[in-house]
Design goal:
The chain is 48% helix and 7% strand. The protein is an alpha/beta fold. It is found in: Endomembrane system.
């Protein structure tokens, strides 16, 4: 593979040199741009390939971890983990997804007293808090059931969708009895979640009728009869989206030291949990304060608030975050992440461990490249052999000290300054930072929740806590970027930390992806726009990150500047328009040799891709979908991201993107119904123009062949055939986009093999008709 890369580099140099030497073109300005584009493509490809020269696949050794840190009969030495689930809206992000994520965390196979779960609700919604309370009640049944029967996955929605009940524990007869009972209780749990909005509304109506003040008519009430401090159903001052108090509520207290075996505290006594640990991890609801006119810094701000509140309550040395539509698919996943952190070779200098993203709801053909295996199982494995993978936004375990902006041990100074100027003016939080530095492996039990401590908890989630501190710059998740993930990982790598990309035979985490094309494109715009914003910022990988290795820096440059490649691809995609002109126009002469050289260079890319498929363990379909969706993105999302970046540079107003909605389309008959919905947005216009330009160009080419085949020279016939090959290649790459725009007709994927030939034939006949008409009545127009 390395030899092939070197051969291709030499081939590209010779190809570009040949083009410059033979600078003969019918359109010189286009020739100049095309040469620049070829050089750009080559450098971009090379910067993407370089990190892959030493790919490494990391697999955790869980048996050794248990032997050294969690031997039965001895006190566990496993470190604590604070697990964060982030949700921005109960409307755009289904509550059931969020609660399944929480349940999978509570049921994870990890030392119960050292795993703590925090739900970050950025909407301050009562329905999410009460859903969390309901979830804690159901967890008292679900978690012991998981432990007793050793099931996976431990998110009930995904588990009960499996074909046939699966377990690895007790006898089959007893399991079937327990399975049916828990399944019934889960259905009841889902009904309770569905009823919560109406329950809260009815409660508010009852209280408003009995209220003594006029303002009581708008109040949203909790089940205990107190006013909800977050957003209300009927928005009011200090109780609406973007303006509400900070909220911290401990839903499930920290488990006791004594292990209660087989004691079911609920009224449900039909299951036998003898010998099963019934305790649950600590569960906390958090909604940070929001005020009008104050920048809340989106997900990064929410995660930083969670970083501080978890430091006060548990201060675990490791911190892992999940998007609310993901869940723990392998109950050993937390052990796997810790395994790399405790590795005696590189563990102390490992800042974070990233796991691949895997998805449940993607159609079998992965039409829009959601699995993105070429990136997750190719590029990331390559970076394992360098300084490590980038942070991908979810399913990533951090070392708390790395998030605090503290250098790794190999670079760490003896005196570390921890003061209010950097970390904020909460004394308990400053003490927690010092405690984390002194003893990373320590286990912190929640302190006494007296009035002063409750005040401190409210302070660290206040909207003004970050003011005049290093939060969002040198500490925590980075602010003022459209996407916080890649820039936060870059800041950690830049301090000298390394990272690990971990895989497990059974995927560690799974989630949902936007299978509707419009939502998928919006997601790509947000990611690529955030990458571009980073490249043109003060933390550009061109010069920031003083401790980055050279290859790691090249990787970050490629990851942040790749959307610019789309401008050249878009230019080439419009080349078929030349077919619509009456005379032959060639970009490069001699044209036949140019196309042959170009084909050789492109084929070499795909041959190298074949070797990547082999060592990365991906399929041909994964690789092909990556090729197709990169083309689709290059004529839709990536140019849009570039436009956003230009506007940002000119106006200095920052980039704002729409959050991807995760609410599924209501269609009980088809789980992929959302894929066939067409939502037109302006960014799709260039792709439509390219698609129809190619259809017209192919039709016109057929028409010209019929009319001029007898008069064309051999060179003209070769040129026409090679140009037509380029048209067809673009059509094949845009095939998923063509399916998307025909909506529900695309359920029959072969329909395009009927519609496209009809379109080609119709266009050719129309061209022949127009040509014949002009030849008879306006012959001068054909000269």
């Amino acid at each position: 593979r390395t030899v092939l890369i070197l051969i291709r580099v030499i081939a590209v140099i010779l190809f570009v040199g040949w083009r410059i030497k033979n600078n003969n073109s019918d359109v010189m300005w286009f020739w100049v741009i095309s040469v620049v584009a070829d050089v750009w493509f080559s450098l971009s490809w090379l910067s993407y390939q370089l990190p892959k020269y030493n790919p490494i696949k990391m697999i955790p050794d869980l048996a050794t971890l248990r032997k050294q840190f969690d031997t039965p009969g001895r006190s566990s030495q496993l470190p604590g983990i604070d697990v964060i689930v982030t949700t921005a809206s109960a409307t755009d992000e289904p509550i059931l997804y969020t609660m399944n994520c929480v349940l999978s965390i509570l049921a994870a196979d990890y030392h119960i007293g050292r795993c703590n779960c925090y739900l970050s609700d950025d909407s301050g919604s009562l329905v999410l808090y009460e859903a969390l309370v309901e979830t804690a009640k159901f967890a008292a049944l679900w978690v012991p059931f998981c432990r007793k029967h050793q099931i996976d996955p431990r998110a009930p929605e995904s588990y009960f969708e499996l074909e046939g009940p699966l377990c690895g524990g007790a006898s089959h007869k007893e399991f079937i009895q327990d399975y049916k009972h828990v399944c019934t209780q889960y259905e009841e749990f889902k009904k309770h979640l569905d009823m919560l909005p109406n329950t809260i509304r009815q409660r508010a109506d009852i209280y408003s009728k009995t209220g003594t003040k006029d303002e009581d008519a708008k109040v949203t009430w909790m089940a205990d009869g107190t006013q909800w401090p977050g957003t209300w159903l009927d928005p009011a001052e200090k109780h609406r989206a973007g303006h509400h108090a900070g909220i911290v509520k401990i839903v499930q207290s920290h488990p006791e030291h004594v292990v209660p075996l087989g004691v079911h505290e609920s009224n449900d006594s039909s299951l036998n949990f003898d010998g099963v640990d019934m305790r649950l991890p600590m569960l906390v609801y958090v909604a940070r304060e929001k005020c009008p006119g104050v920048e809340h810094n989106k997900k990064a701000g929410a995660l930083n608030a969670e970083l501080r509140i978890s430091a006060l309550l548990s201060n675990a040395p490791f911190f892992i975050n999940f998007d609310c539509d993901h869940y723990i698919n392998n109950s050993e996943a937390l052990h796997a992440a810790v395994c790399f952190m405790l590795d005696p070779r590189e563990g102390d200098n490992t800042g974070f461990v990233q796991f691949p993203q895997r998805f449940d709801n993607v159609d079998p053909t992965d039409r829009y490249g959601n699995h993105n295996r070429v990136f997750f199982d190719g590029a990331m494995y390559g970076l394992n052999g360098q300084q490590g993978p980038t942070y991908l936004g979810t399913g990533c375990m951090f070392r708390r000290l790395a998030l605090y902006g503290i250098d790794p041990p190999c670079w760490r100074a003896e005196d570390i300054i921890v003061d209010s100027n950097r970390f904020g003016n909460s004394l308990p939080f400053l003490n927690s930072v010092l405690a984390a530095i002194k003893q990373e492996e320590g286990v912190t039990l929640p302190p006494t929740l007296d009035d002063s401590f409750l005040e401190e908890m409210t302070k660290v989630v206040s909207s003004s806590y970050d003011d005049s501190t290093d939060w969002g710059r040198g500490i925590g998740y980075i602010y003022n970027m459209a996407t916080e993930d890649i820039v936060t990982g870059f800041r950690i790598h830049g301090q000298g930390w390394r990272s690990m990309y971990a895989t497990m035979e059974r995927e560690a985490f799974r989630g949902t992806a936007p299978i509707n094309l419009t939502e998928r494109l919006r997601q790509i715009v947000r990611w690529s726009g955030g990458s571009l914003e980073m490249f043109f910022s003060h933390i550009s990988p061109l010069f920031a990150g003083r401790r980055l290795s050279l290859v790691q820096r090249l990787s970050y440059i490629n990851f942040t500047i790749y959307p610019l490649t789309s401008l050249f691809i878009l230019m080439y995609a419009f080349c078929p328009v030349m077919w619509l002109l009456p005379t032959e126009i060639l970009v490069q002469r001699p044209y036949t040799r140019y196309i042959v050289y170009l084909i050789i260079v492109i084929v070499m890319i795909h041959v190298i891709g074949m070797f990547e498929i082999m060592w990365a363990g991906i399929t041909w379909l994964d690789w092909w979908r990556n090729e197709q969706f990169f083309m689709i993105g290059s004529v839709t999302a990536y140019p849009t991201a570039v436009l956003h970046m230009v506007v940002n540079i000119l106006t200095k107003k920052g980039i704002h993107f729409r959050v991807t909605t995760k609410q599924p389309v209501a269609d009980t008959d088809d789980k992929y119904a959302e894929m066939y919905e067409v939502h037109w947005v302006p960014m799709m216009i260039p792709a439509v123009v390219v698609l129809f330009s190619n259809i017209l160009a192919i039709g016109v080419a057929i028409g010209k062949s019929i009319l001029y085949m007898g008069t064309w020279s051999a060179a003209q016939k070769r040129h026409g055939a090679l140009g037509l090959l380029f048209n067809l290649w673009i059509m094949v790459l845009l095939y998923p986009f063509a399916l998307a725009i025909i909506g529900r007709w695309a359920k029959r994927t072969g329909i395009l093999f009927i519609l496209l030939p009809i379109a080609f034939l119709s266009t050719s006949l129309m061209y022949i008709g127009v040509h014949t008409f002009l030849l008879h009545f306006f012959p001068s127009m054909l000269i």
